[in-house]
Amino acid sequence: xxxxxxRVLVVDDHPLFRFGLCTVLAAEPSVDxxxxxxxxxxxxxxxxxxTPDVVVMDVHLPDMTGxxxxxxxxxxxxxxxxxxxxxFNDSExxxxxxxxxxxxxxxxGSGQDEIxxxxxxxxxxxAIFGPDIATRVLGFFNAGPEVxxxxxxxxxxxxxxxxxxxxxxxxxSGIAAKLSLSPKTVRNHVSSIFTKLHVADRAxxxxxxxxxxxxxxx
Length: 218
What we know:
alpha/beta, 2 domains, 6-stranded parallel β-sheet
């Protein structure tokens, strides 16, 4: 940051929200609002031309995600910090933004003072997250290793066993023998599997199962 007042570029595709945020930042004497943009392409071009210290970026943009735009901006100018300000609080968006080089992540609805503090923090090179996001980040790092869930979690354990045998090319009568089930029970399981996996026949079920690692020697 070149001075005490961070130079800020606002990027959001909602005109009213962008206007409101720009109005707040323009009225803040400790911040220098240098521009605004409504799309990812505009943001990248504006960041290149205006060399802001901080880009306040929404995740949802009409031409690309704010995360992709952030990655491009940070890739071109490491000195520019990205503060994500969005409605999306899912873990995937949060960690994708971090991997793209964003230094901060706040939710829309944050107070004006909180946004201004975050702008200054990001401008100083610090990382900052809203309370809900910070809790999510800490929870991720404090949790143990993630245990992968079963493939096709919509299926019951017995249905997954049947599907694995289908993927190995076993007939209904063969499945009945291997699992000690009646032929009718096997037919019911197969019908349920087709419905839950949205497949029309056995061939499609085999393709889905083998792509997921079932059957064929797996």
